[in-house]
Design brief:
Number of helices: 9
CATH superfamily of the largest domain: Dihydrodipicolinate Reductase, domain 2
Number of strands: 13
Radius of gyration: 20 Å
Distance between the termini: 9 Å
Oligomer: single chain
Helix content: 25-40%
Shape: globular
Number of domains: 2
Largest sheet: 7 strands, mixed
Strand order of the largest sheet: 3-4-2-1-5-6-7
Length: 334
């Protein structure tokens, strides 16, 4: 790999694409050249990188010649079409969509957990689902110490997980309600302002949504834990940025709050924010725009054997997407 790689961001104008560009700059990733790719309608727009304006170019079959690493965040159909074209051109793809996550030939990586899996790539490495990534930042260190068998979890997912239009929808609806105007909706099936929606993604025959099953399926693959079980309810909440997850985890070995806290304090990419007596616990308002996830509300689970409850919060545009992708690119350079 070129030590100063030519990097492309596919879907550069989207919420995650913009964060990818910022993250490359903030982490001083040794970008030799940056190419920004998006659909035809974004051509002519410019985005700043290291103080320079870079014009968006249209994503085509010929976009990947000479590119070393491509960070994709343009949706599953674009990834399915263009990632194989990019790999044929000699480029390594880090894909943020769900297109390749469960493909047995594609590593699914959270660098703090399974960076070594990157070495097995055949041209594509997948970024996990944002809620899964944030949950595993706290769950995996506990799994290493105590052996997780199953979890029950509920997510509290920010609207920016859906994209820029969802942020606009929440802003618009709050304004409409304050002004006592009729509420209009385009992105979500129901009003999101001052409401919570117990649906993220589409429903499966089981009654779970696709998003809810990602925790179990992707968790098994990332943790190399084929028997891991996760029963999850994913909920969209009227928060702009950063997802939170309430987790009840059951372990094979006995666990105490003190032992769990000691383990979590050593975990990379995670801050322990846990002083309930002083009303200190992780909140999306404070984890937004931060690289680290935060864990708190640690307590023994009163309904499970060897059970521990915790609350984890993290920026789903960063650790759940852009930051994780850039960290994978950093692993590739090593």
């Amino acid at each position: 790999m070129n030590p100063n790689p030519h990097v492309a961001v596919v879907g550069a104008t989207g919420a995650v694409g913009v964060e990818m560009i910022k993250t490359l700059e903030q982490r001083n990733f040794p970008v030799g050249k940056l190419t920004l790719l998006a659909s035809a309608r974004s051509v002519g727009k410019k985005l700043k990188f290291r103080g320079h304006d870079i014009a968006i170019t249209e994503l085509t079959k010929d976009s990947f010649k000479g590119i070393d690493i491509a960070l994709f965040s343009a949706g599953g159909s674009i990834s399915k079409e263009f990632a194989p074209i990019a790999t044929k051109a000699g480029c390594v793809v880090v894909d943020n969509s769900s297109a390749f996550r469960m493909d047995p030939t594609v590593p699914l990586v959270v660098p703090e957990i399974n960076a070594a899996d990157c070495a097995k790539h055949q041209g594509i490495i997948a970024n996990p689902n944002c809620t899964t990534a944030i949950t595993l930042m706290a769950l995996y260190p506990l799994h290493q110490a105590f052996g997780v068998t199953r979890i029950f979890a509920s997510s509290y997912q920010a609207v920016s997980g859906t994209g820029a239009k969802a942020i606009e929808e929440l802003e618009r609806q709050v304004d409409q309600i304050v002004k006592k105007q009729p509420v209009t909706k385009e992105v979500y099936p129901h009003q999101i302002a001052f409401n919570v929606l117990p649906q993220v993604d589409s429903f499966l025959d089981t009654g779970y949504t696709k998003e809810e099953m990602k925790m179990e399926n992707e968790g098994r693959k990332i943790m190399h834990h084929p028997n891991f079980r996760a029963s999850v309810t994913c909920v969209r909440v009227p928060v702009y940025r950063a997802h939170s997850v309430a987790v009840s985890a059951e372990f094979a070995k006995p666990v105490t709050v003190e032992a769990a806290r000691a383990v979590l304090k050593q975990a990379p990419g995670l801050d322990v924010v846990d002083d309930p007596a002083n009303k200190v616990y992780p909140m999306p308002l404070f984890t937004a725009e931060k690289y680290n996830c935060a864990v708190g509300r640690l307590r023994m689970d009163c309904a499970l054997e060897n059970g521990l409850c915790f609350w984890v919060s993290g920026d789903q545009l960063l650790k759940g997407a852009a930051l994780n992708a850039v960290q994978i690119a950093e692993v590739l350079l090593k």
